[in-house]
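ok so i was messing around last nite and threw this chain in just to see what happens. nothing serious, just curious
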Amino acid sequence: MTTVVLVDDQTLVRDGLRLILELAGIEVVGEAGDGAAGVDLVKGLRPDVVLMDIRMPGVDGIEATRRIAAGPAPTRVLVLTTFDEDSLVYEALRAGAAGFLLKDAGRERLVDAVRTTAAGGSPMAPSVVQRLVGHYVERPPAGIVGSTATQALSEREREVLALVGAGLSNGEIAERLVVSMATVKTHVRHILAKLGLRDRVQAVVLAHESGLHRPGT
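result:
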């Protein structure tokens, strides 16, 4: 069973998240109202996933994510964000967050994002992906490869990369292409290896820069 720790300074938010996750068969093993307490919980409980708010008193979600990611056996962190926190999302990703999700995401997307994160994936809210891309296109991360590198991909891999660029999760890509989740994971792993990309965020950027995905398509 997937285990989760909730870190958010609003009790009502934590209560809602707990209800949704537990109804889906995901075990919430702990809760914290600030980043420092969240880091301590993670060290003791070692959950599969941390659902981490960004704005919190004391130690915020970015610093808490950095401390968790620096641990000997880091728990994967899924950041909860709102539309006005773009710059903080960038910082959270640099701190080691595995992905991010809008706080107003529906139940199914929340559950899918937690399970995807626990399985090693990097869920990203499509509406935030567009703004992330804008940020990175303006100031691309070191090591990003040129768009011509996509020529090394197979036709199916290019199709998968385009869907990654649209912000779709592995599960959503599998459904769209009518293939298994394992097949999608294999394609994504090959794409990252062939293009020398560090993570799914860089894959999203490349999908846009190369024209494989265009906003609005």
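not much to say yet. Residues 35 and 165 are 31 Å apart (CA to CA).
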